[in-house]
Write a structure and sequence with these properties.
Its cofactor is Fe(2+). HEAT repeats lie at residues 72-112. It holds the Pfam family HEAT_2. The chain is mainly α and 309 residues long. Helices cover 66% and strands 0% of the residues. The chain has helices spanning 3-17, 23-36, 39-46, 54-67, 73-81, 87-100, 106-111, 118-134, 163-171, 177-190, 193-201, 208-221, 227-235, 241-254, 256-265, 272-289, 298-308. Helix 9 (163-171) packs parallel to helix 11 (193-201) and helix 15 (256-265) runs antiparallel to helix 16. The mean pLDDT is 92.
Length: 309
């Protein structure tokens, strides 16, 4: 990376780490850094874990996982091990370690498979299963359905994409969570309204972690049929904040009048992570319905700042 590029990356990092900046601007800076990749970008992201926003820190960990760079493992382990940290952030750090896929993370993930915070424990159990699946013998490899979303997921899809078959697995709470996640991603990859409605039924399942992942997947699909059930869960003040937050972000991705109205109704929610999620999601709605070329556009802004400084 050229020296001026390193300087520009650091400028983006300054946008991200400055708590005086609007959260929506900081999110755009974060996703700019994720897209850039490299140790400098990871250092900028890692420096932001001192922030007070659980939403932002959760998103930092998510991005580090999606970057799939082992350089991020030490900071993610530190976050996962910190029992004073918000459980939503710790969960995302565990999931990120699974996404990076290094067998070196197996020990710390196994350690937290019985974590007192159930969402952290379930996440680490899933991550352990993913690592074992990822590093299985060549003879056990499967012909997986293609992932049209280019994301690194906590479980691989099943080979069978039949909606009725995968719906039955998804909603059967006696089936191991990893297998239900596989069904979830199979339904996502299958696409279409029937799959969306099957997934939306999962918003009523017992595990908060599971419900939150269903909301995330519905956001990826950006299908209008998902907006009413997502809005209904967002309205439920008794629901786990992690689930409500993910419903808000999913509505931001779906956009449209129904989604925007639900988000505006909770932009001043009593729960900080929900309130902030709605504010960021409204910015995403604006992007999805506008003519901006790129959501993660802070590099150009940083280069302008660099040129004029």
């Amino acid at each position: 990376m050229a020296s001026h590029d390193v300087s520009a990356v650091k400028k983006v990092g300054e946008i991200l780490c400055n708590p005086q900046n609007p959260l929506k601007q900081r999110f755009r800076a974060l996703f700019t850094l994720r897209n850039l990749g490299g140790s400098e970008a990871i250092d900028c992201i890692s420096a932001c874990f001192e922030d007070t926003s659980a939403l932002l820190k959760h998103e930092l960990a998510y991005c580090l996982g999606q970057m799939k760079d082992p350089y991020a493992i030490p900071v993610l382990v530190k976050i996962l091990e910190d029992r004073e940290e918000n459980s939503m952030v710790r969960h995302e750090a565990g999931e990120a370690l699974g996404a990076i896929g290094s067998i070196s993370s197996l020990e710390v993930l196994n350690k937290h498979c019985s974590d007192p915070m159930v969402e952290v424990a379930e996440t680490c159990q899933l991550a352990v299963r993913r690592l074992k699946w990822l590093h299985r013998p060549e003879s056990e490899r499967e012909n997986l359905s293609a992932n049209p979303y280019m994301s690194t997921d906590p479980a691989p899809p099943n080979e069978n994409c039949d909606v009725a078959v995968q719906r039955a697995i998804l909603l059967d709470e006696s089936v191991p969570l990893f297998e239900r996640y596989r069904a979830m991603f199979s339904l996502r990859n299958a696409g279409g309204e029937e799959a969306v409605l099957a997934l939306a039924e999962g918003l009523g399942c017992g595990s908060a972690l599971f419900r939150h992942e269903v909301a995330y997947v519905l956001g990826q699909m950006q299908h209008g049929a998902a907006a009413p059930p997502l809005a209904r869960v967002l309205r439920d003040a008794a629901e786990h904040a992690m689930v409500r937050h993910e419903c808000a972000e999913a509505l931001g991705a779906i956009a449209g009048d129904g989604a925007t109205g639900a988000l505006r109704a909770h932009a001043d929610d009593a729960e900080r992570v929900v309130r902030e999620s709605c504010q960021v999601a409204l910015d995403m709605c604006e992007y999805e319905s506008g003519d901006q070329f790129q959501y993660a556009d802070c590099l150009a802004e940083a280069k302008v700042a660099e040129a004029t400084s």
